[in-house]
């Protein structure tokens, strides 16, 4: 545990020195390697992982062991980045949630997001979500907070009614959560209200086509956001690029594109060699 304590401590400290910290959602280790060239915060996105690993939508069937193994692979090649991990509801019961939290902290995870959705769950930006009663979720949150040592815990609610949001956010703060996330916020003005209610760092989740408005970092910072989660930019970019490459290959009778702006085996291998070098750092 001691080996990884600097990851959690440095993120906790950075929240006091940096006004806003972006986390880029990735779908596999390679996309994490690319995102890491530009950002020091990496978000292990449940939506992206479900799509990449299973080829299925994010509806709550991710096995905790698959997620932990994925985080371990990312941490191996990115030993000094902040890793924020989406663990849904903690993968059902409280004991499982605490076990996963212990394993992720041992790996060197910087922070987790745990939510109050019932199963079957769904992406926070889709309709039809069901919520646990606050009195049902809080004991799990208390146990998770008692289990972690240094890792930050972001408590997420998927509530949509104002009074229910405020009630749940207050409950999360009283339980000792390190930060708050209200998913699928339709009006960014709510951020300032949340900040006044709990005086904790506020996380904000942006996803293309989602219910929340998109905004520049400056705009979000002015609204009171401390942690910006970009859930799916790598996954969506890969979809566009792969589809375009397949259309080109099909259109040009199987001729591979060459020339300026094209990735080749040398440039791709250079990224992989960088991963090896970071993995071998002491």
Structure notes:
- The chain has helices spanning 5-17, 29-35, 46-54, 64-77, 94-107, 134-147, 162-175, 190-198, 217-223, 233-251, 265-279, and strands at 21-26, 41-44, 82-86, 111-115, 152-157, 179-182, 202-206, 225-230.
- Helix 4 (64-77) runs parallel beside helix 5 (94-107), helix 5 packs parallel to helix 6 (134-147) and helix 6 (134-147) packs parallel to helix 7.
- The model is unreliable at 1-5 (pLDDT under 50).
- The chain has a single domain (2-246), classed as TIM Barrel (Alpha-Beta Barrel).
- The two termini are 16 Å apart.
- By secondary structure, the protein is an alpha/beta fold.
Characteristic key phrases:
single chain, 282 residues, alpha/beta, TIM Barrel, 8-stranded parallel β-barrel, 11 helices, 8 strands, disordered N terminus
How would you summarize what this structure contains?
The chain is of the alpha/beta class. It is built from eleven helices and eight strands. The protein has helices at residues 5-17, 29-35, 46-54, 64-77, 94-107, 134-147, 162-175, 190-198, 217-223, 233-251, 265-279; strands at 21-26, 41-44, 82-86, 111-115, 152-157, 179-182, 202-206, 225-230.
């Amino acid at each position: 545990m001691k080996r990884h304590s600097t990851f959690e401590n440095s993120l906790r400290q950075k929240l006091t020195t940096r006004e806003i910290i972006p986390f880029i959602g990735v779908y596999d280790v390679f996309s994490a390697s690319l995102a890491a060239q530009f950002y020091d915060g990496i978000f292990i996105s449940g939506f992206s992982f479900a799509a990449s690993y299973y080829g299925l939508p994010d509806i709550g069937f991710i096995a905790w062991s698959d997620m932990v193994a994925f985080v371990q692979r990312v941490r191996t090649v990115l030993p000094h980045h902040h890793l924020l991990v989406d663990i849904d509801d903690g993968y059902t019961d409280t004991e499982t949630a605490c076990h996963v939290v212990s394993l992720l902290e041992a790996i060197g995870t910087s922070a987790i997001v745990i939510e109050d959705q019932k199963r079957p769950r769904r992406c926070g930006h889709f309709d039809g979500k069901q919520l646990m009663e606050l009195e049902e979720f809080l004991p799990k949150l208390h146990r998770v907070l008692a289990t972690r040592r240094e890792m930050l815990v972001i408590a997420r609610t998927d509530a949509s009614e104002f009074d229910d949001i405020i009630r749940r956010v207050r409950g999360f703060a009283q339980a000792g959560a390190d930060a708050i996330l209200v998913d699928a916020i339709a009006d960014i003005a709510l951020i300032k209200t949340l900040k006044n209610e709990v005086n904790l760092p506020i996380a904000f989740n942006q996803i293309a086509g989602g219910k929340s408005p998109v905004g520049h970092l400056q705009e979000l910072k002015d609204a009171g956001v401390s942690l910006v989660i970009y859930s799916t930019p790598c996954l969506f970019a890969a979809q566009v690029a792969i589809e375009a490459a397949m259309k080109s290959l099909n259109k040009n009778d199987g001729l591979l594109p060459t020339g300026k702006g094209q990735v080749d085996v040398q440039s791709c291998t250079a990224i992989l060699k960088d991963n090896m070098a970071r993995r071998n750092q002491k």
